[in-house]
Amino acid sequence: MCLGIPVQIREIDRYVARRESKGVERHVSPFLLQHESLAPDGFVVVYVGYAIQKIAEQEARTAWELYDQMLAAEGRPSDA
């Protein structure tokens, strides 16, 4: 199963963005969304290191709630 992860953009420097989700910060490429107006504190879906879709904050929160429920059903902690 392939899964895109909602993340919050913290900083953008040309074709590299620093993103955060669940307290974990990493870098992601916003190159595929260069036609979108991305800004710090905005939300995107990341797949294999690339931002693939701009989303609203509420969509990101809803996705994480669902992921947390799936992890809980498997007996895993939601911050894993």
Helix-strand sequence: EEEEEH
CATH fold label: SH3 type barrels
Poorly predicted tracts of residues: none
- Order of strands in the sheet with most strands: 3-2-1-4-5
Name of the CATH first level:
Mainly Beta
Number of strands: 5
Tally of distinct domains: 1
Give the end-to-end Cα distance, rounded to a whole number of Å.
Answer: 18 Å
Q: What is the CATH-assigned architecture?
A: Roll
Going by helix content, strand content and strand pairing, the class is alpha+beta
Shape: elongated
Largest sheet: 5 strands, antiparallel
Q: Determine the oligomeric state from the structure.
A: single chain
Radius of gyration: 13 Å
How much helicity do the residues have?
10-25%
What is the number of helical segments per DSSP (H or I, 4+ residues)?
1
Please characterize this protein's 3D structure.
- With 80 residues, the chain is α+β, with helices and mostly antiparallel strands.
- The chain has one domain: SH3 type barrels.
- The protein is built from 1 helix and 5 strands.
- It has one helix at residues 57-73, and strands at 5-13, 16-21, 24-28, 43-47, 50-55.
- The protein has a 5-stranded antiparallel beta sheet with strand order 3-2-1-4-5, covered by helices on one side.
- It starts with a strand and ends in a 7-residue tail after the last helix.
- The relative contact order is 0.21.
